[in-house]
Design brief:
This protein has a single domain, classed as Rossmann fold (3-Layer(aba) Sandwich), CATH 3.40.50.300. The chain is α/β, with parallel strands linked by helices and about 230 residues long. The chain has 8 helices and 8 strands. The longest helix has 22 residues. It is globular and about 45 Å long. It has a 5-stranded parallel β-sheet with strand order 2-3-1-4-8, sandwiched between helices. The protein binds zinc ion. The site of zinc ion (ZN) has 8 residues, from loops.
Length: about 230
């Protein structure tokens, strides 16, 4: 099943931190030709630059806070403009607030991406499970690969098996920041789900199962909705 064609399919993935959104969107990109805009990555990349915008973004990202909506709009508008017509698109980690929902709908309209072909994929995961996953998450400083400590790399590894770079814990995966991200998620992102409740736009997926099973569930649901 490939989603390329005359329609402009747009999916948004939301779920608590650690729910595996990134893994699933990468799998969908590979299997069905989606282009993924990972909003957190866009912001993290910008936060590494020395520009005024970069420094501003950095101060939010490091504290686990939500970046102001005008900055998000600015960044995403530029990203979406680069995308060709008919290219199926995923926003990973967006919209995270009700204010961002307005930005999303504005961007869809401006780029002639029909609301009929828009769906919100919600990956649910109990908080306890999500916290335990995030605690084990590590990243290679050099190639930016993500690993699970004690699962995909031996416990306590310091060296990346792919490029020999240094294994680190991302600053937003530290325990105190994880807790903050959860509070923010509950307070700000759950209202997004309320907003689309009853519209038939939400595809709810059980995230508390192996990645392959989650992926299968997503594909099955997309097929029913989009055909
Ligand atoms: Zn590496």
């Amino acid at each position: 099943m490939n989603m390329k064609g005359n329609r402009n399919i747009t999916l948004c993935f939301i779920g608590p931190p650690g729910s595996g959104k990134g893994t699933q969107t990468r799998m969908l990109a590979k299997a069905m030709g989606f282009k993924v805009i990972e909003v957190g990555d866009c912001l993290r990349d910008l936060s590494k630059t020395r520009s005024a915008l970069g420094r501003k973004i950095k101060s939010y990202v490091e504290k686990g806070k939500i970046v102001p909506v005008d900055i998000i709009e600015n960044v995403l508008t530029k990203e979406v403009k680069k995308i060709k017509k008919g290219q199926p698109l995923i926003f990973d980690g967006f919209p995270r607030t009700k204010k961002q929902v307005k930005v999303l709908e504005k961007i869809l309209k401006a780029n002639k991406r029909s609301f009929d072909d828009f769906y919100l994929v919600y990956i649910s995961l109990p908080l306890k499970e999500a916290v335990s996953r995030l605690r084990k998450r590590r990243m290679c400083e050099k190639c930016e690969s993500i690993f699970i400590n004690g699962v995909t790399i031996p416990k306590g590894s310091k060296i990346c098996p792919l490029c020999h770079g240094k294994i680190i814990r991302r600053s937003d995966d530290k325990p105190e920041v994880i807790r903050k991200r959860f509070q923010v998620y509950k307070k700000q992102t759950e209202p997004v789900l309320d907003y689309y409740k009853g519209t038939g736009k939400i595809i709810k997926i059980n995230g508390n199962q192996p990645p392959e099973a989650v992926f299968k569930e997503i594909k099955k649901n997309l097929k029913q909705k989009i055909g």
